[in-house]
Structures are given as C-alpha cells and as structure tokens.
Design brief:
The chain is mainly beta and about 140 residues long. It has helices spanning about 30-35, 105, and strands at about 1-5, 15, 45-55, 65-70, 75-80, 90, 115-120, 130, 135-140.
C-alpha cells in the first residue's frame, strides 16, 4: 500500500502506528494517499522508500516521502492451546490484572479484540504462566 511519511522517518524497516489525521490534514490535497489509506490504531512497516517528495506542514522538515507499507507483524501473548505456527486465529486478549507485567503483550498496540490473525511464529521455548494461572505463548501475529 502506498502512503506518505515524514522525510525524517522514511527509512526501510521502520514501524509506526497510525493515530489518525491532524486537523491540518483535512484540506490537504494528499489526504487520500497519505491518511485515508491507513487504518487508525494499526502498526505499519515501511517496505520501500520512493524518491518522490511533497510539502507537508505537519512533519518535521516540512516534507513527506512516498513509501510502500504493509501492516507490521505484532508480538502478543496468547493461550498456549492455540499457539500453532501457520494457524489462523481470532485474537481474544486475556482480561489482565492491574499488577500484570505482561499487559502490553496481552493487549499489544495495533491489535484489536476479534481481529483475524495468522500465527507467523511461536517465539516461546516454554509456556509463560500469567498471574491468572493461564499458560501463555509469545507469538508473532500477522493481520
């Protein structure tokens, strides 16, 4: 997917989260290419950087570059019973306790409850016990 990103961020491999449009984006002639193609709250990875630049009052340096992006793979903790590489799942985050140190992995940025995902890789050598006593596995998920 083609979009625009600040020239200082336009590097192959960089990941970013799209948080929605700034107020200045509303009347921009590049809005359809820059903002409208991205889904709010999702994490994207830059796959390719083009030479084309455009002016932008939002980004540092006052310019954006044309880039090709894909939705980034996301690390998450899921129930070990369903953590099989190559399988498709519907993401169901655990209802974490306030004192859980793994909350960011149980509710990772870029994933929403009921998202359809593919388990790209099981990163756990052993199961991880959560504070609720559940056996969890660290996996890499692809939307």
């Amino acid at each position: 997917m083609i979009t625009l990103i600040g020239i200082n961020l336009a590097q192959k491999g960089i990941e970013f989260t799209h948080y929605g449009e700034a107020s200045a984006c509303g009347n921009c002639r590049f809005k359809n290419t820059c903002i409208d193609v991205l889904e709010e709250g999702r994490v994207y990875r830059v796959e390719d950087v083009k030479d084309t630049q455009h002016p932008c009052p939002i980004h540092e340096g006052g310019k954006v570059k044309v880039v090709e992006v894909v939705k980034a793979d996301i690390m998450a903790l899921i129930d070990s019973k369903i953590a099989f590489e190559g399988s498709n799942i519907i993401f169901k985050p655990v209802n974490c306790e306030d004192n859980c140190k793994e909350t960011d992995l149980c509710h990772p940025e870029g994933l929403n409850e009921n998202d359809r995902c593919k388990i790209v890789k099981n990163l756990s050598k052993t199961q991880i016990k959560c504070v609720k006593g559940l056996d969890m596995s660290l996996v890499l998920l692809r939307l």
